[in-house]
């Protein structure tokens, strides 16, 4: 006959509890305690645990808690301190003693008396849960809770890892328990409690007691009163259910429970308890602010762009999870390209020329040619979450994947890209086309075949714009039908390939650019950063550089990390870029942008752009040292800029020159005057000898009859090796020569 145990023995009670609890978490704790040699009943220390748990990872003794990173401008000034989790790590001395005591009393009142496992607490919970027939009381010690929180912290935003860290399973409980046992040997109780208060989540994005005190009471944890400390301590069990903002009554009931526990364990006097219970919740809630909101001079959008770069560029980690972990842990020092003086000028221009209350908005990006460095990024509406204050976190300067929207149609600012493709393909710089006022899109070749718009009309801005025109005049006047005929000549494939070389292989929404005849008229949406970077290649004599925002970075251990490179490449021959610069100088001297200038008279090149219905207007202009793109339009949808008031000024119809142009001019005057006056390398473009109206234009490869058609005269022969206009050498046809209609 088996030996009988006394009815009231510990194991009998434990067995009864386990039977009734079934697979509950508390049963797991108890079984785990019994399964470890001499742990459950004897020492509750690590002395008799398995050898494999002798060494606990440092993540548990000194956890690498996520903290703020600092972003700097190019001069070393602080743009903002940013974080993935709002947390400030405190020492024991920086925490109010009543806060520490309240947390212990409500979560684990025997914390200073037991080891990693509180056997009395386990048995008490098992008995009460057995009586209730369900798991109504827990028994995890504060040390075990701390270990679980470390696992949750390590999981970060990885949902699978988070679920694994919080799964109610025996295996997880055993793992937590073993670590807790060793942890109690390596750290003092005060150290464990301090770590616990720094890591614990208190709701509303507040991690740790300092963030919680600031969030709910707008004060530091060292200044918490009895009722305030009690409310925060009570939140830990269920931050959602006891949320004082959403559920104030539940929060007060929970707070009062903690106050009564403090009284029960004689950590406050009856008088103190009475006063605390009578006190209102006293919530002084402070909304959690993304660190970028604190940035000055409108740098919040650039700050947010930097965040997207770190989270998306493979140089910061092979996987999205790796990059997220780097950002989440924080402690980074990120040094950027932004020039504070240029940023201030850009911000002032877009906010004074356009009001935040206007129905439209403006965005501006400045890029340094030859380096890809983003020097300024500004927009009219401030960075923030309060739409009632006209704030937004949508970065209108960048693509959707980097925190922006779906971009804006660039209009005629796309025409120079076709011109570059044409020159590279062998079309002479003084090429003429009939350029009627109105025509239908012709059939055009693509990289894969042909495209036919089947009679879709295209017309010039004014009925008086009737050709023939040569390229210089067509660019200055922005003649639509001229460039459609050039597009037919060159082919859509050549234009697409040039756009890709200039960083416009994809649109702002992430989709590939389409080979459609209206491409040259800028009907596909892009961002100001994309256009500024493309025009910076013209300024750098054909060298395109991928835009970069970060120059260097070090982690919390002051270890230097790799950063993205500009990956510069020659998108076109220098002479091709010189030709484009010559043409775009004509735009600012005698063309649609002739009213835009720098007060010191220096050379500027650029192109205006306006879309159908005046939904968007652009001016992208540059000097050899600085490329700047300005967009103006409806920030969240199509707003026709006709009969509209912008910045206090009335416009019957907005154009690129009179809408975004003055914004560009104001900012560029501010940053350029007093600096070196660089000049462009230009080419000689002979004056056009137009064919009389109604006569056919000269065929490609001639210049109105002045050339001899064999490559030895001014006209050149339009092939890949001809000399044009006094030594302007056309480079080899990178697109395989003519890919459009047959050349004559």
Automatic annotation (TrEMBL):
Keyword flag Transmembrane: yes
Keyword line: Carboxypeptidase, Glycosyltransferase, Hydrolase, Membrane, Multifunctional enzyme, Protease, Transferase, Transmembrane, Transmembrane helix
Pfam families given in the database record: Transgly, Transpeptidase
Domain Glycosyl transferase family stretches: 77-262
Listed Gly residues bias regions: 702-719, 734-744
Domain Penicillin-binding protein transpeptidase: 363-627
TM region(s), chain numbering: 20-44
Signal peptide: none
Region (Disordered): 680-744
InterPro entries the UniProt entry points to: Beta-lactam/transpept-like, Glyco_trans_51, Glycosyltr_51/Transpeptidase, Lysozyme-like_dom_sf, PBP_transglycosylase, PCN-bd_Tpept
Catalytic function, reaction form: Preferential cleavage: (Ac)2-L-Lys-D-Ala-|-D-Ala. Also transpeptidation of peptidyl-alanyl moieties that are N-acyl substituents of D-alanine; [GlcNAc-(1->4)-Mur2Ac(oyl-L-Ala-gamma-D-Glu-L-Lys-D-Ala-D-Ala)](n)-di-trans,octa-cis-undecaprenyl diphosphate + beta-D-GlcNAc-(1->4)-Mur2Ac(oyl-L-Ala-gamma-D-Glu-L-Lys-D-Ala-D-Ala)-di-trans,octa-cis-undecaprenyl diphosphate = [GlcNAc-(1->4)-Mur2Ac(oyl-L-Ala-gamma-D-Glu-L-Lys-D-Ala-D-Ala)](n+1)-di-trans,octa-cis-undecaprenyl diphosphate + di-trans,octa-cis-undecaprenyl diphosphate + H(+)
Low complexity: compositionally biased ranges: 720-733
SUPFAM superfamilies per UniProt: beta-lactamase/transpeptidase-like, Lysozyme-like
Protein name as annotated: Transglycosylase domain-containing protein
Species: Kitasatospora arboriphila
């Amino acid at each position: 006959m088996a030996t009988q145990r006394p009815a009231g023995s510990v194991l009998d009670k434990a067995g009864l509890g386990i039977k009734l609890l079934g697979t509950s978490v508390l049963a797991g704790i108890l079984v785990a305690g019994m399964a470890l040699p001499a742990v459950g009943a004897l020492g509750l220390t690590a002395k008799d645990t398995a050898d494999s748990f002798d060494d606990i990872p440092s993540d548990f003794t000194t956890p690498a808690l996520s903290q703020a990173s600092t972003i700097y401008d190019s001069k070393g000034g602080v743009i903002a301190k940013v974080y993935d989790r709002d947390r400030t790590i405190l020492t024991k001395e920086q925490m109010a003693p009543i806060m520490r005591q309240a947390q212990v009393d409500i979560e684990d009142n025997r914390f200073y008396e037991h080891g990693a496992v509180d056997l009395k607490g386990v048995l008490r919970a098992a008995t009460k849960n057995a009586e209730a027939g369900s798991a109504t009381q827990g028994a995890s010690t504060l040390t075990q809770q701390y270990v679980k929180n470390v696992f949750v912290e390590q999981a970060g935003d990885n949902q699978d890892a988070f679920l694994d860290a919080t799964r109610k399973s025996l295996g997880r409980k055993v793992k937590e328990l073993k670590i807790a046992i060793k942890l109690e040997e390596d750290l003092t109780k005060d150290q464990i409690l301090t770590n616990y208060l720094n890591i614990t989540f208190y709701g509303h994005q507040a991690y740790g007691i300092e963030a919680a005190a600031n969030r709910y009471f707008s004060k530091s944890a060292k200044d918490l009163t009895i009722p305030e400390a009690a409310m925060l301590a009570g939140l830990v069990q269920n931050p959602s259910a006891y949320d004082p903002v959403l559920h104030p009554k539940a929060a007060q009931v929970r707070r009062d429970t903690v106050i009564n526990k403090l009284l029960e364990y004689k950590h406050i006097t009856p008088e103190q308890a009475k006063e605390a219970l009578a006190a209102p919740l006293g919530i002084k809630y402070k909304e959690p602010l993304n660190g970028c909101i604190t940035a000055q001079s409108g740098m919040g959008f650039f700050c947010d762009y930097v965040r997207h770069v770190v989270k998306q560029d493979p140089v910061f980690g092979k996987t999205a999870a790796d990059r997220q972990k780097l950002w989440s842990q924080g402690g980074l020092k990120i040094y950027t390209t932004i020039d504070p003086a240029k940023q201030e000028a850009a911000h002032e221009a877009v906010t004074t020329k356009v009001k935040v209350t206007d129905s439209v908005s403006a965005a501006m990006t400045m890029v340094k040619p030859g380096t890809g460095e983003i020097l300024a990024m500004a927009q009219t509406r401030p960075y923030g979450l309060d739409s009632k204050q006209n704030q937004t976190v949508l970065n209108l300067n960048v693509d959707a994947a980097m925190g922006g929207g779906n971009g804006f149609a660039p209009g005629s600012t796309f025409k120079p890209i076709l011109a570059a493709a044409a020159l590279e393909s062998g079309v002479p710089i003084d090429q003429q086309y009939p350029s009627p006022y109105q025509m239908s899109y012709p059939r055009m070749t693509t990289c894969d075949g042909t495209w036919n718009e089947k009679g879709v009309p295209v017309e010039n801005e004014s009925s008086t714009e009737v050709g023939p025109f040569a390229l210089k005049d067509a660019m200055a006047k922005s003649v639509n039908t001229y460039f459609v005929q050039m597009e037919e000549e060159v082919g859509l494939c050549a234009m697409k390939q040039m756009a890709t070389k200039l960083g416009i292989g994809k649109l702002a929404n992430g989709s590939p650019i389409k080979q459609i005849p209206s491409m040259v008229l800028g009907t596909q949406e892009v961002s100001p950063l994309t256009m500024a970077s493309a025009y910076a290649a013209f300024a750098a004599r054909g060298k395109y550089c991928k835009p970069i925002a970060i120059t260097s970075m070090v982690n919390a251990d002051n270890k230097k990390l790799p950063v993205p490179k500009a990956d510069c490449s020659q998108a076109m021959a220098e002479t091709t870029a010189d030709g484009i610069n010559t043409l775009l100088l004509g735009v600012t001297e005698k063309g649609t942008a002739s009213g835009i200038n720098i007060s010191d008279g220096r050379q500027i090149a650029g192109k205006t752009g306006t879309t159908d219905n005046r939904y968007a207007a652009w001016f992208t202009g540059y000097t050899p040292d600085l490329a700047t793109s300005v967009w103006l339009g409806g920030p969240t949808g199509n707003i026709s800029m006709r009969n509209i008031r912008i910045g206090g000024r009335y416009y019957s119809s907005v154009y690129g020159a009179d809408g975004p142009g003055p914004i560009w001019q104001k900012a560029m005057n501010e940053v350029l005057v007093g600096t070196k006056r660089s000049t462009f390398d230009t080419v000689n473009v002979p004056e056009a000898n137009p064919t009389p109206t109604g006569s056919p234009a000269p065929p490609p490869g001639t210049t109105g009859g002045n050339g001899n058609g064999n490559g030895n005269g001014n006209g050149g022969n339009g092939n890949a090796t001809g000399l044009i206009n006094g030594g302007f050498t056309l480079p080899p046809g990178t697109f395989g020569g003519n890919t459009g209609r047959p050349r004559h």
